[in-house]
Amino acid sequence: MSESTVSPGDVQARITQLFVYPVKSCAGIELQEAVLTETGFDLDRAWMVVDAQGGFVSQREQPRLALVQPQFKRGGTELALRAPGMLALHLAVDAVEQPTRVRVWDDEVPAYDMGDVAAQWFTDFLSLSDQGLPAAQAARFRLVRFDPEHKRLSSLKWTGGVEALNQFSDGFPLLVLGQASLDEFNVRLQAAGHAPVGVERFRPNIVLAGPEAHDEDRLDTLRIATGEGEVVLKPVKPCPRCPIPNIDPATAQSSPEVSDTLQAYRRDARLNGAVTFGMNAIVLAGVDTVLRVGQTVAADFRFD
């Protein structure tokens, strides 16, 4: 089916990369196409690692999560997780086990515990030291699956009252980033004597080519032409940045140059001076539509 067209806007763009992150804070999967759901891309942040108290665990506390590589197999019915020094963990996508409740930021939500095998796998991997030896008095971890029947809302303050759903993401269904924004950042990083970094450091779902650096900060709705009609996304909140972009996804080692460079020019008055990079977005139209690399995007600037 040929792609539809969208009316022109102030900005013309093209989707150059799509990513889904099945397990919160683990590595992402780059896709050529992704199904859009109410909660973002299908199975994005559907799973999450929690501690013994049911609180979510991220690269902030466990940078080795960056080394966990997910892959969908068997026609998308199985999720395989691989990590250095570990046999692969295979999970049926539709498998659910014991109901539980977990915390992600300020939200307590229902979930399903994925069982003792998955729990031991993450406990063993995250307890390994840099030398590959078990750390003393290792913490215990479990893997949980979001209960798809639960409606976890994004901040109504930022969505303008729109009830936008998400699963275990930090708070919004999608993260949009302009390629030019990354390019400008890398120019600054190299000028300070550091090597450039890849887009995976910033964990976007959608990367756009065409807009100038940080134009995504001030766009209204994004209208995307697909063969199934028009998708409409709305950037609603700048994405505040924690130390996770400092973590090298290839080594799980952290160094401060990424955050230091961002702090020099990306303090955002809309978030009381927090450092931001990329825009959180919600879905206004196009649920169950397939987004593909190469699709065209039109948007107008927002003036408010």
Description:
- It is a single chain.
- By secondary structure, this protein is mainly β.
- It has a single domain (11-301), classed as M1 Pyruvate Kinase, Domain 3.
- It contains four helices and 19 strands.
- A seven-stranded mixed β-barrel has the order 1-13-12-17-15-14-19. Strands 5-11-10-9 form a four-stranded antiparallel beta sheet.
- The radius of gyration is 19 Å and the shape is globular.
Features:
304 residues; mainly beta; M1 Pyruvate Kinase, Domain 3; seven-stranded mixed beta barrel; four-stranded antiparallel beta sheet; 4 helices; 12% helix; globular
According to CATH, the homologous superfamily is PK beta-barrel domain-like
Helix and strand content put the structural class at mainly beta
**Low-pLDDT segments:** none
Share of helix among residues? 10-25%
Tally of individual helices: 4
Tell me the strand order in the biggest sheet. 1-13-12-17-15-14-19
First-to-last CA distance:
38 Å
Total strand segments? 19
Percentage of residues in strands: 35-45%
Radius of gyration over all CA atoms, rounded: 19 Å
CATH names the topology as M1 Pyruvate Kinase, Domain 3
Number of domains: 1
| Overall pLDDT confidence | 93
Biggest sheet details: 7 strands, mixed, barrel
CATH class: Mainly Beta
The topology string of helices and strands comes to: EEEEEEEEEEHEHEHEEEHEEEE
CATH architecture: Beta Barrel
